[in-house]
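Hey forum,

I'm writing up a methods section and want to include a predicted complex as supplementary material. The small molecule is NAP. I've pasted the protein sequence and the SMILES. Can someone with a working setup run it? I'll credit the forum in the acknowledgements.
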Amino acid sequence: MALTSAGLCGLFKSFRQEYQTVHTKTVDLDLTAPSAILAGRLIEELALDDRSYEVGLTTTGRWTLRLNNTTPHASQLGAFPFDKESVVLITGGAYGITCDIAQRIADLSKGKLVLVGRSPLPDEEPEETRSLDAAKLRMHLIAERKASGQPLVPAQIEQNLKRMLKDRQILANLQALEATGATIEYHSLDVRDEEAFGGLIDDVYARFGRLDGVIHGAGVIEDKLMRDKTPQSYANVFSTKVDSAMVLAKRLKPEQLKFLVFFSSVSGRFGNNGQCDYSSANEFLNKLADDLDRKWPGRVVAINWGAWDAGMVSDELRRIYASRQIYLIPVPEGVRFLEQELRLTGHREPEVTVACSVPQLARMVAGE
Ligand SMILES: NC(=O)c1ccc[n+]([C@@H]2O[C@H](COP(=O)([O-])OP(=O)(O)OC[C@H]3O[C@@H](n4cnc5c(N)ncnc54)[C@H](OP(=O)(O)O)[C@@H]3O)[C@@H](O)[C@H]2O)c1
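Reply by user p_vandermeer:
Happy to help. Structure tokens for the complex are below, copy them as they are.
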């Protein structure tokens, strides 16, 4: 599929979930085929009463996608690809599930990890709040406001609390990463900013002379049904993954790169209610991985993660999944899977789906 249509394909996968009475499918046409043949095939496709939602039409036939279980045998696993000399760039790596992966890469390689996030590097937390849990910290913030005569605005208090807890976690994560013996750098920048992000990539090449692997995990969600989405919110979610991926595609030196891993989502593969922007962005990553993997000597792979028991998964999503017996990926399992994927030798796919409860997920997608 042409990359320019990839986002649309993801968008329609979510559309079909939100408007289940409308039959939606994306049809990928091989434009080198004679137009008379394509026109005939397209009319047949429109008349077909099936649940396929992603179809390719070529001169040789009609193609649909099916998930295959490809759990590798131990004999297919080689050595871990990164060592003490390696330099690995990890966007989103100081927080969330990408940080769990960074921890394993640091442990195994002891190499150089360049981490990127928007959060400024936090200052050490003051002694007086360090031992407070979330509930006590909230009380502390309220008391502080009262004492200074500031109005008590609950939303502001919650925002401050969230920030403090995130800063605390980032500091703890960076300390844990450094404790592995790996060399850790943290850069505060927005990956949507081509000048800043591209500049960092150039700087890594200039300073270290190499970049062996990239894990692109930066991402945000702002879930809302399509009818309630604003263009600004759509752009925010989409550009965080897509603009940054295009910077990587442009600035990386493929001849030196062993791995480029995009953190994509089952939402890109299947679509999801309230995630038209996120599905679209992740489906773009899937198709970009397919495209780059054909052209670059190293491996490019998009991993369609199902929900982890960590990171951006909201309480609401947890409730929906629990009601459908869809289990979350335990953190050690997700980390183990990525390590395995990095060690895989021989034939390797550019798009991989990793989720618990795949049959239940498929049923949910089919609207059952
Ligand atoms: N958790 C899951 O179950 C799950 C499932 C499927 C796919 N994924 C994918 O896995 C990745 C990580 O998810 P997560 O759950 O760990 O999310 P998370 O906890 O919200 O962490 C997201 C990370 O991305 C960074 N980030 C966001 N926007 C950025 C920007 N514009 N520039 C630089 N850094 C940015 C954040 O740091 P700052 O806030 O400091 O910028 C943070 O480190 C995402 O791409 C997500 O789509 C996660």
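Some notes you might quote in the supplement: The first strand starts at residue 26 and ends at 29. Residues 91-92, 94-98, 116-119, 190-192, 217-220, 240, 263, 265, 305, 307-308, 310-313 surround NAP (CB under 6 Å).
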